[in-house]
Every structure is written in structure tokens, then in C-alpha cells.
Specification:
Elements (H helix, E strand, L loop, with lengths): L1 E4 L4 E4 L7 E6 L12 H17 L3 E6 L20 H9 L3 H18 L15 H14 L2 E4 L2 E4 L15 H5 L18 E5 L16 E2 L1 H13 L3 E6 L4 H16 L4 E6 L3 E3 L2 E2 L10 H6 L4 H9 L7 E2 L2 H20 L11 H19 L4 H18 L3 H18 L12 H16 L3 H13 L2 E6 L2 E6 L1
Parallel strand pairs: 3-4, 3-9, 9-10, 11-13
Antiparallel strand pairs: 1-2, 5-6, 6-7, 7-8, 11-12, 14-15
Helix pairs in contact: 4-6, 4-7, 6-7, 9-10, 10-13, 11-12, 11-13, 12-13, 14-15
């Protein structure tokens, strides 16, 4: 498999560090509000990558954190005085921050399930891994990479010469004025140093530590949890474009300063989800949640296909017309799988369909292995379906064709599960045949009544030139 590595800016051959096992860390949600569809672009990438690794035959240990403390409102790398997002939300809702965090974590998991995303191996909560964070901060203090100032602990970016290698925001560039985000603070050695531990008596979530009572900075959380579950060097670390700087840059600096080895071999970032050319954000109110879209009649699988059908690194416009297009694409895939098996004539395998099936599977896999090229992968499936429909398959051919799509759906995750055979299949087939006979006799009232009766039993019909096909909804 070949993946684009944000650290090098190149598409590179990927093999796991540990034979047969991929160790992957995905930046998860900050659980202070319901995640919007823009957030799910990064989560969809994580799931697509995980499924692709498994499709390639590797076992995947996937860790996705739950940020339930320490995330500043402006995502500021350096300013320890910024307000924590969860604390602000707790004040506005007049609720306990722990309660809000658990409620929003439950919502997040429900939305993942609605979008057919496989559960991660572990969803570690930041608040449950403070001892690991304290241990890393102690190590950084002991080695001179961190220092204490007015109750806070800061990472000294000048102590890590390769700072900025991921994002291009090197210390030289920052000091030349390339970044206007950082406010000068007198207690810091450099305005670009970032907080590892914060002191604020008003903060509701506090822990005792050797360097004073307080709470962790955002960046140290991911470093500590990634190391706890995946070791000193990860195979892959993913996230959205906003994570690259400062968050991922700071993770690299503090992790490698503790371990002395590379933190992540591959960094994989998705493009933004944009509305009218602008990033979708809570701050600007330009957001839709998963429940918002489900309420408009889209299925979770429609939304999922919309998020993955274009290349993950490209910006993705948010437009309901594009979501409608994804829904139609998914319906075509569903119809092919759901109806091809029914009422097909018996007969030998058609060598041309055997050839087409092998080619479609090969092209689908090759597209995925080329930096997750889902557009090309879906194109291979569409060409295959068109060719099969043109030939007119036998029952054996149809089974082979459906198997190609079911195999591909191990990665795509957009098809409904294959329905189990029902005890009333013979009875359903008899009613469908009666309806066909009524239509041939132009007894449309009887045909409509039979269709309604079948629909009431959850049976969907598709009338084609070679007869009526049926499936369970």
C-alpha cells in the first residue's frame, strides 16, 4: 500500500513496523458539543484507512482519544490562559463538565455507529490517563526540554531543533513573524513555547502533580495516550488539517524528546470540509450534525459515502446536491446487490463475467492501495455493474457479481447487511409471480394490491425487462 506522508510530502510505500500489525492513532473528538459533519471527515478517513489495512490482511490496533479536558477555545499552542472549551460549555449550560463530556461521548459513539464506522480498539479518555501525562512531563523537566513558570509547565521549543518539520512552521519562520497566533507572555522563555501543565484555581477539573495542582495541556494528552497503548513509535497518526499545527507538531516535539525515537512513521491528514469555500466550523455557525442530516431523510450510509467517495486529501465542498448524488450512487449499488440474485435463470458461468469479476476486484484493490483512491475504486465497481447488466447474468453469474460488491464493501461500508433467507421466501415468490400474472392480464388493481401487501411485509420490488426482482428492505 502507498500512502501520502504529510511529514515528507510524498506518497510512500507503507508496511507496518511490526509484522502483520498496524498501530494507528486517530485524533478524536473534544466532547463539549455534538460533532459536526466537518469533524466526521477526519473520522471517516480513520475508518477508511483502518478498513483498508484490514482488507490488505493486517491486524489493526486503532486508538482514538476522547478529549475531555485541557482543550483551549482558540486551539492555541502556547497561551495557558485560554479558556477550556468544556469548562466554557459547562458554564453556559449550568452543568458539570464531567456530565457534559459523558453525554457528548455517547452522542459521538452513536453518530459513529450511524455512519457504519467500526469501533476503535480503545477510546481512551484524557481524564483517565493523567498519571501517564504527569510521568512524561516529569521526564521532560528532568531532561531540560521543559521548565516551570508561575505554576505552569512549558515545553521549550528551542530544545527541539526539528520543530516545524511536519507543518513548515519552524521556529525560524515563527520568529520571523510567520505566525500571528501567539501572544507574548512574560513568564515564558519564548512566546512559542507551549503549555504542558496549567495552573488555574478556577478550573473545575484539577489533579495533584509534583509540579503543582492543575490540569494538562491538550497536546500532552495525545502523546501520553498514544504511547500507553501503541508504544514509542506509531505506524500511522491521522487527523484533520487543523490538527497539523499546532497539535501534531507539538506531539512530535514532546514525544520524541522523551523517547529519543520517531513518534509516528506516517502522518495522514484529510482535506477540509468546506461551505462556500470556507471551513465548516462551530464558531461561524456553518455546521450540520449527523442527526440534522438523518432528519432530512438521508441514511447514515448515504452520509458515509459522501464523506469517502472523493479523495481524502482534497477539500470537500458541503452541498446537499453532492449528498443527493452520494445517495443515488449508494442506491445503485444496493439495487445491484439486492436484486441481481432474484429470478435469474439457471445456466453455466459466463467466462466474460468471470473475467470481469476478477478485473473489477483487481482494479478496486489497486485503487485503494494507491493512496486510498476511492474515486477510482468506485469507478471500477460502476464499470463492472454496467458490463454485467449489459450481458444479462445467469444465477451463478449474479452470485459472483454480488460477491465482488460485498467484498468491496468490507472497505466502503455503505451496503446494508445481506438479509438472511426467510422462512416465507417461497410464499413471497408465489405472491410476486401472481402479481406478474395480474400485470400481464392488465389487472392492475390486483397487481397494485399485491404490491401493497408485499410492501407491508417489508418486501421491495423492482420491475425489469426480464421479470420482477424482490428483496427485503
Amino acid at each position: 500500500m502507498r500512502l501520502h506522508n504529510s511529514l515528507t510530502g510524498r506518497v510512500e510505500e507503507f508496511t507496518p513496523l511490526h509484522p502483520g500489525e498496524v498501530r494507528m492513532y486517530n485524533c478524536g473528538p473534544t466532547v463539549y458539543k455534538r460533532q459536526h459533519i466537518g469533524n466526521f471527515r477526519a473520522f471517516a478517513l480513520a475508518d477508511l484507512l483502518r478498513r483498508s489495512f484490514e482488507y490488505a490482511g493486517w491486524r489493526v490496533v486503532q486508538i482514538m482519544n476522547i478529549t475531555d479536558v485541557g482543550h483551549l477555545t482558540e486551539d492555541d499552542a502556547a497561551d495557558a490562559s485560554g479558556e477550556d472549551k468544556l469548562e466554557r460549555e459547562a458554564r453556559q449550560r449550568a452543568k458539570d463538565p464531567w456530565q457534559i463530556a459523558r453525554e457528548e461521548e455517547t452522542n459521538f459513539r452513536a453518530d459513529l455507529a450511524a455512519l457504519s464506522m467500526r469501533p476503535a480498539s480503545v477510546y481512551p479518555r484524557a481524564t483517565e490517563h493523567v498519571p501517564e501525562m504527569i510521568a512524561m512531563i516529569e521526564s521532560l523537566l528532568a531532561s531540560g526540554h521543559a521548565y516551570r513558570a508561575e505554576g505552569n509547565v512549558y515545553f521549550d521549543v528551542r530544545s527541539f531543533p526539528s520543530y516545524g518539520a511536519l507543518s513548515g512552521n519552524t521556529l525560524a519562520a515563527l520568529e520571523a513573524g510567520a505566525s500571528g497566533r501567539v501572544e507574548e507572555r512574560s513568564e515564558k522563555r519564548s512566546p512559542h513555547d507551549f503549555a504542558l501543565w496549567k495552573h488555574d484555581p478556577k478550573h473545575l477539573q484539577q489533579w495533584d502533580a509534583p509540579f503543582g495542582r492543575g490540569f494538562p495541556g491538550w497536546h500532552i494528552e495525545c502523546s501520553a495516550m498514544a504511547r500507553r497503548y501503541l508504544g514509542d513509535t506509531l505506524d500511522v497518526h491521522t487527523g484533520g488539517p487543523d490538527n497539523k499545527f499546532p497539535h501534531h507538531e507539538c506531539e512530535i516535539a514532546q514525544s520524541e524528546s522523551v523517547t529519543g525515537v520517531p513518534f509516528a512513521r506516517f502522518w495522514v491528514h484529510c482535506g477540509r470540509l468546506e461551505l462556500a469555500g470556507r471551513k465548516m466550523s462551530k464558531r461561524e455557525g456553518t455546521l450540520f450534525t449527523v442527526p440534522d442530516l438523518l432528519a432530512q431523510g438521508y441514511s447514515g450510509r448515504d452520509v458515509r459515502l459522501y464523506l469517502i467517495k472523493h479523495h481524502y486529501r482534497a477539500p470537500l465542498p458541503f452541498d446537499l446536491a453532492l449528498l443527493d448524488e452520494a445517495a443515488r450512487t449508494r442506491e445503485r449499488l444496493e439495487n445491484f446487490v439486492g436484486f441481481e440474485m432474484a429470478r435469474r435463470p439457471e445456466g453455466p458461468a459466463n467466462p466474460e463475467i468471470v473475467r470481469l469479476a476478477a478485473g473489477a476486484s483487481r482494479d478496486f484493490r489497486a485503487a485503494l492501495e494507491d493512496d486510498l483512491n476511492t474515486s477510482a475504486a468506485l469507478a471500477a465497481l460502476h464499470e463492472f455493474m454496467t458490463a454485467v447488466n449489459r450481458i444479462g447474468p445467469s444465477r451463478e453469474d449474479a452470485a459472483r457479481a454480488v460477491a465482488v460488491l460485498r467484498d468491496a464493501d468490507q472497505v466502503l461500508g455503505v451496503l446494508e447487511p445481506a438479509p438472511a433467507a426467510g422462512a416465507d421466501d417461497a410464499e413471497i415468490a408465489k405472491l410476486v409471480a401472481e402479481r406478474d400474472a395480474a400485470r400481464r392480464a392488465r389487472d392492475f388493481a390486483r397487481a397494485d394490491a399485491l404490491r401493497d401487501a408485499l410492501a407491508a411485509r417489508g418486501i421491495e420490488l423492482l420491475d425489469t425487462a426480464d421479470g420482477t426482482h424482490w428483496r427485503r428492505k
